[in-house]
Specification:
The structure is a homodimer. By secondary structure, the first copy, chain A, is an alpha/beta fold. The first copy, chain A, has two domains: about 130 residues, ATPase, nucleotide binding domain (Nucleotidyltransferase, domain 5), CATH 3.30.420.40; about 160 residues, ATPase, nucleotide binding domain (Nucleotidyltransferase, domain 5), CATH 3.30.420.40. The first copy, chain A, is built from ten helices and 14 strands. In chain A, helix 3 crosses helix 10 and helix 5 packs across helix 7. Chains A and B meet through strand 11 and helix 7 of A and strand 11 and helix 7 of B.
Chain lengths: ~325, ~325
């Protein structure tokens, strides 16, 4: 582990690459974002990332490591990006090696959901626990698993895909042929579409934008019973996937982040009720159900924390 | 780890306690079983176990450790039995400490499903893998999880309860209030009851004993299409729970044991088809789907292997 509390965190997204200086778990300086699709392929984009990193290093002394969260499958041990879901041209890119050669600092590269979970585990809501299930709720549903005090990775670094687990073996067929995938029930768009159906069934016509999770939360706070019932249903569906994680992993904590989680108790209350009603004592007694401590900044903070803990050691393996 | 390849494995069951000398992964001498319910409570039964162990030690030199698999919740680190499902009077019994005091050898105590999984992981079908999901199919459905090269235990040592995970969020309510528990779909009795319903729906009257998994396997081998379809359904249900484990843990291997798994390819073929059709490349490429290498003896062999690896080290923690 590096002694310096100062590092750089990079959150590589489908539209922008955000780069910031992190002191412990606080962003203290953030560079203007790089627009991902302004660049032809990995080489040019990596050069732009390096220039931004050098700008930040010129302003801050003592930066000791760099962490990068990538939106796709990553081999963490090798720092190799296998491929990105929404950015073409990124196939088998040895990102850690390339960045280390150009910058001369130790670099760690991981999947973005793992980075967010790492931020929560090391500095946020899941701090101090040995077993944590992390869920991120948005357009997609992501996740990560800490068990026996370690991030669980699996044979091809794919572990933690909670959004693809099934809540109904006869449910609709998802993107990977999987029936009843959680993401197809509690993803942003699915919540919206189901709410509109519920309003329509009640004889109420609503445009789609008034059925979004944010709109549903506002409506429920104003006493809209249909909106309230929709949050109960989301809580129930989410609780089924979380319950499966509990029976399998017996975690101390479940940490939930992402835009949909901003509904707060509208979601957390039914989630807790449905979850605890389906677990026995050793699985529910002491179980912490927590909102994520970090928001959009989780990726940057987690990537930086991961680099502080792992980049120096990992580099020696190269 | 103990250098001696000779140990004692104890498989403590609801009806009998089986005690044997194990050489590597082979049972070389087994004592007459002790009838569990012949004894009033833990004290008398532990004394009977100690006598049997001493008989075996008198016949075999060099026994270095003792492993015990218990049918209930166990704190592995402390060797403490919290409680047993089907044996009254076993509450908060410090079994490791009691046995070590009476026998003078290092003892390891674990849950029976963990012992079976440990046998498969160290000496059987799951040997050499870092991430293994183990499922045991019988009247109940048990399991255990190896991830990052470690047995996953969880906050209260409850991890691995695959039989309680849900395959249908709206499914029937199970023992713990959980909806759609796998065990309530593919347990011995549930397979039997559903098969009888299928025969009845086809206008065929069958006594219950002709609908058991063993009878269904025999019928399917003789071309009975209803029996064949029942195995497909069991494979589909089981695949959903296994798929959830794959998305969450990305294991190299799934190992399936227990009486119901004796149906062989009648079960494994549809299981494989349903499972692989619901996973993406990094989750299914290279995934091994394997029948357990050990049968009834898995508990004894696993307990002994666990003791060889862990009892000596664990004892120093006391």
């Amino acid at each position: 582990m590096s002694d310096s509390p100062l590092g750089i965190g990079i959150d590589f997204g489908g539209t922008t690459v955000k780069i910031a200086v992190v002191y412990q778990s606080h962003i203290i300086d953030q560079a203007p974002p790089i627009t991902t699709l302004d660049f032809q392929g990995p080489d040019d984009l990596i050069d732009a990332m390096v220039r931004t990193v050098e700008d930040l290093r010129a302003r801050h002394e003592g930066i000791a490591s760099i962490g990068v969260g990538m939106p796709g499958l990553v081999n963490f041990e090798k720092g190799l990006v296998y491929g990105l879901t929404n950015v073409p041209g990124w196939e088998a890119v040895p990102l850690r090696r390339l960045l280390e050669a150009k910058i001369g600092l130790p670099v760690a590269v991981d999947n973005d959901a793992n980075c967010m979970a790492f931020a929560e585990w090391r500095c946020g809501a899941g701090r101090g626990f040995q077993n944590v299930v992390f869920m991120s709720l948005g357009t997609g549903v992501g996740g990560a698993i800490i068990a026996n005090g370690q991030m669980i990775r699996g044979m091809r670094h794919g572990a933690g895909e909670i959004g693809q687990t099934s809540i109904d073996y006869q449910g609709r067929t998802g993107h990977y042929g999987n029936h009843g995938a959680l993401e197809d029930y509690v993803g942003n768009n699915e919540i919206t579409a189901r709410a509109r159906e519920a309003y329509t069934a009640a004889g109420i016509k609503k445009p789609l934008e008034e059925c979004s999770p944010a709109a549903l939360a506002a409506a429920a706070h104003h006493g809209d019973k249909i909106a309230f019932a929709q949050w109960d249903l989301v809580g129930q569906m989410l609780a089924t996937a979380a319950m499966n994680c509990c029976w399998l992993l017996n975690p101390e904590a479940i940490v939930i982040g992402g835009g949909v989680a901003r509904a707060g108790e509208l979601l957390f209350h039914p989630f807790r009720e449905h979850l605890l009603a389906q677990l026995s004592g050793p699985f529910k007694d002491g179980l912490m159900i927590l909102p994520a401590a970090f928001g959009h900044e989780a990726g940057i903070i987690g990537a930086s924390a991961l680099a502080r803990e792992h980049a120096v050691g990992a580099r020696q393996l190269v």
